[in-house]
Amino acid sequence: MAHSFSYTHYDLDMQRAGTVIEITLSAIANVRLMSHGNFDLFKNARQHKFLGGVAKQSPIRLKIPENGHWHVVVDMEGHPGKAESSIRIVPAAPQKPVQRFSAAS
Fold first, then answer.
1. What is the structure's pLDDT at 37?
2. Which long-range CB contacts under 8 A does 47-56 form with residues at least 24 apart?
């Protein structure tokens, strides 16, 4: 059985733990960051786990909790209208150069 509401799906493919996903929305919407297995459950209207929830401001940022294949779903279940959305992967902050010290003689 499929969902009775429409949603926008973003397949993030393989991502590393700690990667930040930034979701920009034009209206209040539900945002769900899910593993590949949970996305399969979601598609079939089954119980699933996700990070996120009702996004009342934009953009919102969610962090990938573990290495794997990830999906983002934006849906309007329980909210009027339709939200336009876009996502981007936020580049990790560049590592500071390691400061090296010489032993004092």
1. 97
2. 54/28, 54/29, 54/30, 54/79, 55/23, 55/25, 55/28, 55/29, 55/30, 55/31, 56/28
